From TrEMBL:
Keywords: Membrane, Transmembrane, Transmembrane helix. The keyword Membrane applies. The chain crosses the membrane at residues 12-31, 51-68, 80-101, 154-171, 178-199, 205-225, 237-261, 267-283, 290-308, 352-370, 382-402, 408-425, 432-452. This is Uncharacterized protein. It comes from Sphingobium yanoikuyae ATCC 51230.
Amino acid sequence: MPKGMPFVSARRLFLAGAIGLALWLGATFLWHVTWRQGVSLAVILFLDQDFPALMIGLFLLALAAPFAEGMGFRLPQPRARIIVPIIVLLGLAAWAGHYALFQDYSVSRDEEVARFAAAYMREGLFARPIPVEWEPYRRAIMPEFFSPFGAADYWTAAYLPVNSAIQALFWQMGDPNLAGPVLLVLGLFSLWRVALHLFPDRPDAVWVTMLLGLSSAQLWVTAMTPYAMTGHFALNMVWLALVLRGGIAGHLSAGVVALIAAGLHQWHFPPIFIAPFILWMLLARRWTVAAFHALTLVAIVIVWAKIWPGFLLHALGAPTDVRPSAGVADKVGSLFQRLGDRWQPLVNLSRYAAWNNILMVPLAGLGVLAMRWRDAIRGREIALPLALGCLAGCLLALAQGYGWGFRYAHGFIGPFCLLGGLGWARFRPQGAMRPIFIGFVVTLLTAGFLVWRTHVFVEPYAASHRMIDASRADVVLVDPRGGLYVTDLVRGRNGVPGKPMVMNLGMLTLDQVDELCKTYVVELFDRAEFRPLGVPLARWNLGRMDTLRAHMKLAGCDRPVQPPLPETIDDAMNAADNAM
């Protein structure tokens, strides 16, 4: 421990963490619940998942404070033969979790669009041509997150292609759901390599860094989904490991990684991570290296904000249906507009704290406090770019909709863990690991609660999708009124629209409904079907849809989606609840 750095007892660390969490939770509850400011899906999930988890965590933290100081049991050296199998096992658990926890279902439109793009990329396409007979209904079939380029003739994901391309690659190898777990393994391996570089003489700090990462429910659960955020975490850590490796090969490789990362889904995420490191290089007077990485940021804008939209324009045609929004000015303008309209730091950062290690924020705070500012302004403290990146990720606390934790700061979980390792190395005696073990156990308990609540939340949507998918109708019209986010059930099978063709009833005209009823076998999926499955209530109405439904009833075109017939006598008995 450097001279002048006082010892921080585990008791004080635990109590400070518990008090800080309690104050933050109190402010969040008052603002979003008592005063009902900014009520959103994030607040619903906060009350159902994060608030109870954090209350459990801070109570256990305060309870354990008097017993937190001590050595604990001794861990082996954090060598590859120990760390790599642990990381691989976590990756396998994430892969299994997609089927056990999420029931092979992706809840949000963001995830579905990523899988939709992976499906057509797997077929060697840049977009999915819209069958002629479905062109009049194209927006009801693909309600949002579609690219405007050639939108009259093609369905194309609005996001950049790399995340979907990675999924398509794993799909070709057998299972697209392996993409997230493999990226998780890559990210954690790179985090370990960075920790070894930063703490060559403190194996306990390496272990602290890795235990913070390994116990992150946000990392593990998000890796079960098609979200691009696991890729951002992984490639950020790969980039940092290459930069710290140094040399021409290291920096050139880091530049390539940054360019790939920017194409995952939105190009502005990697520059937010990289910019503080360019400042760090400039402070250290590493002019050539700083200039190279600054040029990389320029290349990111040129490739993904200019060349890629130009390619889509050439390949698919002019924008239709909605205006293009891939330009630099559009992206920056949209970001500032969302900061004004949808900035919710209290609830989003509460979700971040709940889904990561209970000691991650307190230890990262120690890492910032331990920074030697004279060295920092000379570019000798890596804590500076790590802290600036974490600050930027947390300040961009925009409303995210779905997400397990706060996914917009997902790429900064690695820096938070590294700051935690720095704080440990500078404020804690070597080998006194008992507090991190206690924090790890507390985190596992809260993570178990979060996983259970996630399963409960996802289950009715997965069951609804299975019910729609099993329909033998040509078309299923989804009437989402009365249910929370039921519009996200409008999707195809494994990313491919087909029979039944699922449409959002609210995006159809009376004439279109008449034409569908005359031409196809049509079924309805509404609150009569999804409410018994457990989809949460949502109080909203739309008079125009009342008119549509009344017209369909008069035309005899309002048959509900029927559950599939049982295939065996055992299935029939189960369906009848064994009643004879």
